[in-house]
Structure prediction request, 740 residues.
Amino acid sequence: MAKVKISDVAREAGVSLGTVSNALNHPEKLRPETLKLINETINRLGYLPNQSARQLAGGATKSFGLVLPRLDHGFSLQIASGAHNEARKHGYDLLIANADNDDILQDHYLRYFMGTQMSGVMVQPMASPDWHPAMTKMPVPIVHLDIHCSAPGYYVATDNEAQGRIIAELAIARGARHITVVGRAAFMQLTLRVLGIHKALALHPDIKIEVIDAGEWNTAADGYSIGAQIAGRPADERPDFVVGLTDVLASGVISALVDKGISVPEQVRVAGCDGNPLAWSGSVPLTTVAPPGYEIGRKGVQLLMEQIENKVPTKTKHIHVGSAARTVTAATTAEDINRQELVRPFLLERASTQASSQTDATAINLGAYL
Amino acid sequence: MAKVKISDVAREAGVSLGTVSNALNHPEKLRPETLKLINETINRLGYLPNQSARQLAGGATKSFGLVLPRLDHGFSLQIASGAHNEARKHGYDLLIANADNDDILQDHYLRYFMGTQMSGVMVQPMASPDWHPAMTKMPVPIVHLDIHCSAPGYYVATDNEAQGRIIAELAIARGARHITVVGRAAFMQLTLRVLGIHKALALHPDIKIEVIDAGEWNTAADGYSIGAQIAGRPADERPDFVVGLTDVLASGVISALVDKGISVPEQVRVAGCDGNPLAWSGSVPLTTVAPPGYEIGRKGVQLLMEQIENKVPTKTKHIHVGSAARTVTAATTAEDINRQELVRPFLLERASTQASSQTDATAINLGAYL
DNA sequence: GCTTGTACTTGAAACGCATCAAAGGGGCCG
DNA sequence: CGGCCCCTTTGATGCGTTTCAAGTACAAGC
Prediction:
């Protein structure tokens, strides 16, 4: 049980300390026999390198940290997935921390990662990351995900506004007269979706729009109760188009409507946002706009790699993923954007289900309920 | 950009190195004014403690590592969620790594975590963890999740067999004559579910059962193509009950059946396993058995805490969560089990959706398609 | 004025490893 | 046989902390 260290291995194998170290880090420098001897000794003794010591002695390790606001949100997982694959491709490890919707905790893990000599850190912040300007001056490359930063720094944003616009345009095309948006609009990303909807509707002042908050957790139960409330209204105050800011919410709304005898989509059409595979792989697929989480994770790591390789982390660089059209906000002036990538949305067929979680693009899934 | 270290803070504040260290770790030992001075200096300089150095010098940190086979599987997330909350409750951090269904990677992260002086490590292995006996002799507490270990060691298992049994009993109660199980039975946990089904059917030799592998990823598309295959059979070779070893699979099967004109549940009933919130929050809820992932994560951390506090990590201890009935396998002899907890399955109501992801128990969701 | 005690503060010693200049050991050529 | 060069191995040095025995300053008690 006593921890075996490198010197134990060295003594046992009859070589010097530095040789064992080389066996671990630069195997090509050793004579094959020596290497073999050392490896056998390592296995026999059950030696496990002390990562802390390696990092202390050797500088940064090849690993990235990723702080996510929650783990039970499919979107965050796609980010994690994309980041993971890209990181492994470059030979980096990826460690993930759950901030549990808590600013303090998010900050805590961020500091933790930076202090661990990670090569880079990524966050999907729940609020604008301007909360702590000191963060951006840290000696570790950092990238913000799924958010627009007004502060200088690297980030990769998805065009949440475009998502809203896409949904709104769909609604218009379906002849909607009264749109109800369901979800906690106070969440940064959701706010932008709502903004996109409003913008798209600017040309159609005759279309009525309302937003109903769904509580903090955006659960199906929240959706259900809102759906029930909608169902209870007199027919002429009822929307003819409901947008769930989340697939789960939309799903709950549909349950309630159907339970209360309102037919979907005949009387009320419903659409969601997120591209949850289950939402549209069922027999009655839900229409949903999928933000390119996987791609965001991937780009995030690429941005990290750039900073690491260039060693010039002073320049601001942003990437926009999945924009259907370019958005201009105060934060993204021309000078801020050194590179911008637009990925066109496209339609997914019913049966090619898995594409939605692996694709590089913003996807619109056309399903039922619409 | 140059990293500021503790000695810089000390010099700048005009105190000694050890005093700054005390300010960080034992603030109560310092005179309030000194503490204040140091804290101000720390903030002014943007000092960030080097975690590697701390760990090296100070021994283990208060943090746990969790290695998961995949991140896009809801069940693993529930584990992560439960582990996270329990860990935070004890003041520990939780870091998560994604093994991406890869043995090597799983091993890699495991070693990484152990080498980082984590206080404890947890894995949800994809195969039996006996693959590497050396692991169990490591100087770091380790707990295996969602699996039965025959090797001595700590683990918390859910009763996968019981899940299968529950589903099978449901099928019997519905008068099934021919059951088709869809999924990659080679996955440890799924194997046990299938075993449970077989055992439950032992008393009903007249009921026909078949298992169809769904490929490695268990996607909805896999389910769809299997569903299509089933639909293509002559009516008398078609099952009257399909069990998706995963909700997503079941979902895909239903899509295919419906597309091919086979009515569900009139002609073929379908059930899933996993308790994916979306699976049964829609308008046509899927029947599914939910393994208590959240609780598994929680118990895992508790087991870790026990080992840490007792400092007697030699005793084998197992916890069974969510057993509907006790299973006895060769691996769990009476002596092995020091403590066993049985949580009774219960029914969830349609509208109380969020419970399924937060509950402590194995849940059976009764839905449509059945 | 001297001793004892209290309340902080100091700084040297480890923590386990990667690094790298230097040393060792052949082989080859002149 | 000496001189060179190349391949391999050595071990002292330092990475940024924590820890802890030793030190300092000051007050109280005699």
Notes: Confidence is low (pLDDT under 50) at residues 312-316, 322-370 of chain A. The longest helix of chain A spans residues 293-310.
